[in-house]
Amino acid sequence: MCKSSAFFVAFPSYTTIATLTAIALSRFLLLSTRYNSNQVNYKKLFIKIATLSWIYGFTWAVLPLVGFSSYTLEDTHTRCAINFSPKTRRYKEKEKKAFSSFLLMVLSFIICWAPYATIGVLSGFTSTKIPKLLIEIAALFAKLAALVNPFIYFWKDSLLKKL
Question: Given this model, what pLDDT does residue 37 score?
Fold first, then answer.
C-alpha cells in the first residue's frame, strides 16, 4: 500500500514538473527565435511535450519500485515518499565526514576574513589609526581564503588522496 500510494503521488508530480518545464521552454524558444507562428504545428508540439513528460514522470516514479532507491514511510508516519536519505551506517559516516569538511571550510573562511573585516569595521566606524603593515597582513589573510579550500578538499577527500 505504501509503495503504490507513493508511486501515485510521485508519478503525476514528476509529470507536472516536466510538462510545465517543457511548456516554458517551448514558449521561450518560440518567443526568442524568429519563428513564424504559422509554421509551428501546435497540436503535434503539444502531443510530443505531453508524451515525453509522461514517459519522464513514469520513469522516475517507477525507479524506486525496481530497486533504484526506495519508497519509505516518512517520519510523520502519515504518507510514503521516496527515500532521499537512507539510514545506513555508511551513509551516516559519509554525512558526518561531509559535515566536518563543511565546518572546517567555514572556520577557515572566518579565520581568513576576520582580520580584514575587523580592520574594515575599525577604520569605518572609529578614528583609530591602523598601521599599514597590519592592513597588508589582513589583506593577505583574506586572499589566503581562496587557497585554503583546495587543501581542505585534498586533505578530507579520500579519492583525491589517491592521486
Answer: 63
